[in-house]
Structures are given as C-alpha cells and as structure tokens.
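cron nightly-structures :: item 1 of 1
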Amino acid sequence: MLPQQGSVGRPRQYCGQACRQRAYEQRSATARAGLSGDVVLVTRAELDGLQDRLYQLRCAIEDVQTLLAERHTKAELERSLHDLVRSTGRLDKLWVAERAAG
C-alpha cells in the first residue's frame, strides 16, 4: 500500500500496473487452490534461508547481551555490535517476491 498523496479520488493501492497485475495473479492462484487470501507459499529453500538468517541474528543479539552483562571491553562490544549490524543488514536485504502461478 502506498501513502496518500493528497490527490482527489480513491487512494492508490499499487505503485503501478505491473504490481497490480501481480497482486491479481496471486489472488487468483490462491483462490484456484482453495487457499485463503492471506496464505503465503515459499519454497523449502527460501524458508531454510530465512530461518538461517534469523538464527544468525539471534546469535548476534545474544552475543551482545552477554558482553553487556559481563562488562567486557569497548573493543569487544564494538566487534560484537558490528557483527549484529552485519547480521541485521543481510536480513534487511531480504525480500520475498511474488511469483506467477504455473
């Protein structure tokens, strides 16, 4: 969904015709399969990749929490925070794209 632009008429829901078409294809495919509209299908490899990235992030957060609790040196904290930012950055680049049915 796009934020309102202050224009007259109904607010836009899609950035362009291509995004509108992909949304229609997704709704049609889920309806044909008898699935509800809020179902998201991903491959096992995509799910495994996401779970791996989330695990890396969780470990980085736990490392920072441990260092904070044990009052380690500034250098150790900086190194751990750098790892945390790096893990978060990889997750930030993750985008699940819709695919046409077929």
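cron nightly-structures :: done
The chain has a mean pLDDT of 78.
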